């Protein structure tokens, strides 16, 4: 779904990156790609990355992805290189900027269960389940043309404390942060807690998000490449 969204909606060329520091270097990725989509994933960011001890509630991890994604996000923010974070990628953006996470949102008083429904078809699992209220006149409200949007929800963890320069512009009805960006970044740094890659070509919220990301990637590629090298943009 992510590759389809990048190709069909963002109008960029998707490349799958092995998230393993034994195989790739952040420096090389920055030069090889014009933008980065940080996707969702079942493993969680290890709590040591935000100064907390591991517990059973934190689930299981992918330390190799942590080792690539977190410094890559920080480098992109500093360079003005476009990034789009989705679900785990949303959480990675927050952690990369010094934020923390709750290990399990549904265990908090007054919070709803944001996890994927255990039963049903894939269409039912990715169905729109709650609204997200956006900051009036903010980046996301302008992008979507609305202050409230409907989204799916398929996550267990969520933002506890926002990192430095992280602006939270969207919230679920229970107060869970759902849409963020990095304040003062020179490039595109939007991230969402839901999964916009599902039905990205047709969903009225997903499509403008991927279109805007694609435009940011293409603009970045144009700025750093000679005209002869601008035929294909890579994300």
TrEMBL record:
One of its GO terms (molecular function) is gamma-glutamyl-gamma-aminobutyrate hydrolase activity. It catalyses: 4-(gamma-L-glutamylamino)butanoate + H2O = 4-aminobutanoate + L-glutamate. GO terms for biological process: polyamine catabolic process. CDD domains: GATase1_2. GO terms for cellular component: cytosol. InterPro entries: Class_I_gatase-like, Peptidase_C26, PuuD-like. Keywords: Hydrolase. Pathway: Amine and polyamine degradation; putrescine degradation; 4-aminobutanoate from putrescine: step 4/4. The keyword Hydrolase applies. Its EC number is 3.5.1.94. Belongs to the peptidase C26 family. PANTHER family: GLUTAMINE AMIDOTRANSFERASE PB2B2.05-RELATED. Involved in the breakdown of putrescine via hydrolysis of the gamma-glutamyl linkage of gamma-glutamyl-gamma-aminobutyrate. This is gamma-glutamyl-gamma-aminobutyrate hydrolase. It comes from Aquimixticola soesokkakensis.
């Amino acid at each position: 779904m992510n590759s389809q969204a990048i190709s069909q909606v963002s109008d960029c060329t998707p490349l799958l990156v092995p998230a393993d520091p034994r195989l790739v270097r952040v420096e090389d990725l920055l030069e090889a790609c014009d933008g980065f989509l940080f996707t969702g994933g079942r493993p969680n960011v290890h709590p040591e990355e935000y100064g907390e001890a591991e517990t059973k509630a934190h689930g299981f991890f992918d330390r190799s992805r942590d080792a690539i994604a977190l410094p890559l996000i920080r480098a992109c923010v500093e360079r003005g290189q476009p990034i789009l974070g989705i679900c785990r990628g949303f959480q990675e953006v927050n952690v990369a900027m010094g934020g923390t996470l709750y290990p399990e949102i549904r265990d908090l008083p007054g919070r709803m269960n944001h996890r994927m429904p255990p039963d049903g078809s894939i269409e039912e699992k990715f169905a729109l389940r709650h609204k997200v209220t956006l900051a009036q006149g903010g980046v996301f409200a302008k992008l979507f043309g609305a202050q409230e949007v409907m989204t799916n929800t398929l996550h267990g963890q969520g933002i506890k404390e926002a990192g430095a320069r992280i602006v939270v512009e969207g919230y679920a009805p229970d107060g869970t942060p759902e849409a963020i960006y990095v304040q003062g970044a020179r490039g595109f740094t939007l991230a969402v807690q839901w999964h916009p890659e599902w039905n990205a070509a047709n969903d009225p919220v997903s499509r403008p998000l991927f279109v805007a990301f694609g435009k940011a990637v293409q603009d970045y590629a144009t700025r750093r490449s000679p005209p002869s090298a601008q035929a294909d943009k890579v994300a």
